[in-house]
Amino acid sequence: MTVTPMMAQYLDIKAAHSGALLFYRMGDFYEMFFDDAVAAAEALDIALTKRGKHDGKDIPMCGVPVHSAEGYLLTLIRKGFRVAVCEQMESPAEAKKRGSKSVVHRDVVRLVTPGTLTEESLLDARRHNYLAAFAEVRDAAALAWVDISTGAFHVMPLTPVRLGPELARLAPSELIVSEAKETELYETVSDFGVALTGLARSAFDSGSAEKRLCDVFNVGALDAYGTFDRAEVSAMGAIVEYLEITQKGNLPLLRPPQKEAEQRTVQIDAATRRNLELTQSLGGGRSGSLLSVMDKTVTAGGGRLLERRLSSPSRVLDTVQRRLDAVEYCVHEAALTSTIRDDLRKVPDLDRALSRLSLDRGGPRDLAAIRNGLTQASLLHARLDPAALPDLLRDAAHQLSGHDDLIDRLDAALVADPPLLIRDGGFVAPGLDADLDEARQLRDEGRSVIARMQAQFVTDTGISSLKIKHNNVLGYFIETTATHAQKMLSAPYSDMFIHRQTTANQVRFTTVELSELETKILNAGARAIDIEKRLYEELKSSVLSHAAGIGTAAAALAELDLATALAELSVTENWVRPKVDNSRAFDIIGGRHPVVERALKAQSGAAFIANDCDLSANADAAKVWLLTGPNMAGKSTFLRQNAIIALVAQTGCFVPATSAHIGLISQLFSRVGASDDLARGRSTFMVEMVETAAILNQADDRALVILDEIGRGTATYDGLSIAWATLEHLHDVNRARALFATHYHEMTALAGKLPGVDNATVTVKEWNGEVIFLHEVRKGAADRSYGVQVAQLAGLPDSVIARARVVLEALEKGEREGGATQKTLIDDLPLFAVSPSPAARPAKSSALEDALAQIQPDELSPRDALDLLYKLKEAARS
Q: Which residue range or ranges hold the DNA mismatch repair proteins mutS family domain (predicted)?
């Protein structure tokens, strides 16, 4: 069957991009056909129609408007699709010049994937959108990652076993791997919701990758940026190759690669990040996470910097101290801090504006963002006194200046509030370009220009009835009566006026000047847009030539924002500067859990009960607190808050405590909470054991470990044995600082056998058969778990609670007396032979209770209420 030229073009382009939905530009719509249309219509919940036939069958079709395509793109990307954007590369008029049946030339200009988004509406302003690549070369491996919306480019060597934890830290949207490794790594990557993309092995060739990188950064060798091994070069080269494929050769503005090292940051595995809810809660959102409580930044760059710092706390003492010094300075200089924050609120997202401009996806507002951001940077530089600033802020202040020429040019060229799109026009300020001003005047004031020309002709000829008119046939023309026409045809006017047409009563003329003016008026709108486009390109080139300085200023603004935001947080939430050093101290007084404290204030206004924790250890000795106490008493909160305080301190922030002395920790491990992994066939207990094994196999003597209820997922004696052995291993082999919560009270005996183990308990109080949680941690051991009382609080039926008390008492009696076997206890407790006793009937109410039940308080006056109170008191006496 004959295929139309347009459909043939579509099929050719689709064949070259078979792995993506093809957005095929048709005028004001992106249209999809065949299977793409069926899949997109379902994913986007839009109408599926048809257009023509292919092989005798209707061709399914759907489409989305070009002006609102971004929203549809975001939906498709989130649902796992990739999209090839195919644009018209010429106008229909240009195509017709090749022949009346010529098809408009089209081509794919961009592949949209999860890791290559740049549009403002498709990204979270406060989060990076990383594209990562993992490479292995012989015995070495490396991970590289880039955020093309900001240009940030990083690489680090790692062992394959560290890939999971690093993916948890970075949370990239997309990971590039060699096609040969795609199946092998699928399970690892799927845990983190990362889109996995396989590239040909040639993309990871380290030799060609090095040349590719040198071309991108226009250098002869990569030595200027550091020493990179073959695996690191391979990973970085794969990213550049992928960007060339998806961006069709129009590479984003990448900053020189920065090499990171594992030993410079606290190592935190995926389970620990999840348990501590650092950047997202267990429910998957930002709300309820530590980040949500700490984030008081006022710029997008500052928000992204906070997330990076919180995800990668430093273990370099000098770095931590510099950050703490900056926060402390801002705390003490409250007035200056407030002023700086007011200035920062006017700072747009410089990094992403610059990236969009480099990719030709920007517009006038991005130029204005650069202007406004650099203007605020210059203002802040003038406001700050470098001599009075701590090192970190002094360095930032120096990086805010040096952009006066660019600011002046952008300020002179742009209006205050430009439109979003270039085609809208009107963004260039009046007075910048004389040709543009003329075109605008003709476009906006064509009638008045014609009126002035008419007045000039009347003056020159003395013919008061002379008029300049317009019709669709002649355009603009000069009209006068036949009587006056003879004068215009005679010298000296015959050389000026050109005869056009004679009617019954009028004669029509034109002049060279009028014809030129007519052409200018008719083309003025398009000419104005063309001039603005040219000026936009010139301004964009000026901005991109200053890209390095703009990126440095953006980083400095983010640093200022973060320091002042953490100072604001510290003052409003009563956080204090921790003492951080290279010792093995861990002494926290009055520590609090910031997320729980915020929730308590919001829900009930109740105060958080602060607690102390001292895990200070000498030399390489272990220090472990064995924590006992009932469920619901706050053990898990206590465990988490101490891990969070240590992490926040090494982020370079004040901490929620009365005081804190923390020796640098190298690793943070948390095994808290219960979950299964049904997809891998892992039970809750199996997941618990896998996570515990990872801790025992990796933790060093500078690690901080928190473990909660190890062994609870199996039989009592199995669980007790595993928990006992785990604690001994932590003490004797890992020699870590640790908090170990358990319900196995038998383990409290270890405090007398292991020198580094201390017992601690969360206190409770019993009152009238009920348990009251005091949430206070003190030295000592709990003698009971209060599980039945907690079950009663949860609302189990009274009959179940009563029966549980009977069974518990019998079991405890058997254990105290010794020798009571399970069979004997079952015989003594007819669990299945006797039905639970019915609930006791309530006693008959008294006369006083009946009288109280009849009272309607809303109907009583104050005097009536007082009288009634005396009567009730008298009745009670009798």
A: 703-719
Q: In this structure, what token pair is assigned to residue 577?
A: 């500067």
- Across 89-173, the runs of DSSP E, i.e. the strands, are 106-112, 131-137, 140-147, 152-157
Contact call for residues 234 and 257 (beta carbons, < 8 A): no
Q: Spell 768-790 as b/e; 16+ CB within 10 A means b.
A: eeebebebbbeeebbebbbebbb
3-class state of residue 99 by DSSP: coil
Residue 68 corresponds to which tokens in the numbers above?
Answer: 């609102």
Same domain flag for 48 and 153: no
Determine the pLDDT at residue 304. 96
Q: Is 636 annotated as a binding residue?
A: yes
> Which comes out higher in pLDDT, residue 835 or 282?
282
Closest CA to 254 of 128, 382, 367, 355: 355
Reply yes or no on whether the pLDDT at 23 is more than 50: yes
Strands 506-510 and 579-581: unpaired
Please report where in the chains the tokens 């071309």 appear, as a residue: 215
| Cβ 589 vs Cβ 332: under 8 Å | no
Q: At what angle do helices 391-398 and 317-332 cross, to 10 degrees?
A: 80
Domain range for 306: 295-403+546-572
Check which CATH number belongs to the domain holding 23 and give it.
Answer: 3.40.1170.10
**Known binder of ligand: residue 1?**
no
Number of domains in the chain: 6
Q: Are residues 566 and 587 in the same domain?
A: no
501 plus 560 within the same structural domain? no
Q: What's the pLDDT score for residue 830?
A: 52
What is the number of other CB atoms lying within 10 angstroms of the CB of residue 549?
Answer: 15
pLDDT digits (tens, 9 = 90+) for 700-716: 999 999 998 887 777 67
Same domain, 353 and 234: no
836 pLDDT above the threshold of 60: no
State the amino acid at position 729 in one-letter form.
Answer: H
Residues 22 and 85 in one domain: yes
| Chain-centre distance for alpha carbon 628 | 38
The verdict on whether residue 488 carries a ligand-binding annotation is no
Arithmetic mean of pLDDT, 403-411: 96
Give the pLDDT confidence score for residue 686 in this predicted structure.
82
Let me know if residue 507 belongs to a domain: yes
Q: What is the mean pLDDT of residues 115-134?
A: 92
One domain for residues 599 and 503? no
Residues 783 and 659 in one domain: yes
**The pLDDT of residue 470:** 85
Report whether 633 belongs to an annotated binding site: yes
Q: Which residue has the tokens 């700086």?
A: 340
* Cα three-residue angle 566-572-573, rounded to 5 degrees: 85
Q: Between the CA atoms of 7, 11, 13 and 14, what dihedral angle is there, to the nearest 10 degrees? A: 130
206 shares its domain with 93:
no
pLDDT mean across residues, the chain: 88
Does 545 carry a binding-site annotation?
no
448 is in an annotated binding site: no
CB 255 within 8 A of CB 551: yes
Known binding residue 630? Answer is: yes
Main-chain phi, psi angles of 628, to 5 degrees: -120, 170
Inter-CA distances, 418 with 340, 424, 478, 528, Å: 26, 9, 40, 15
pLDDT at 808 over 90: no
More confident residue, 467 or 874: 467
Residue 835 confidence (pLDDT): 44
What's the CATH number where 514 sits?
Answer: 1.10.1420.10
- Residue 464, domain member (yes or no): yes
| Six-digit token string for 327 | 């926060």
Please answer whether residues 871 and 863 qualify as being in contact, where contact means their C-beta atoms are separated by less than 8 angstroms.
no
- The pLDDT value recorded for residue 806 is 79
Give the pLDDT confidence score for residue 276 in this predicted structure: 93
What DSSP element (H or E) covers 292? helix 290-294
Q: Which residue has the tokens 């609090």?
A: 592
Mean pLDDT of 102-111: 92
Cβ–Cβ under 8 Å, residues 215 and 114: no
- Which run of H or of E encompasses 590? strand 586-591
Do the annotations mark residue 631 as ligand-binding? yes
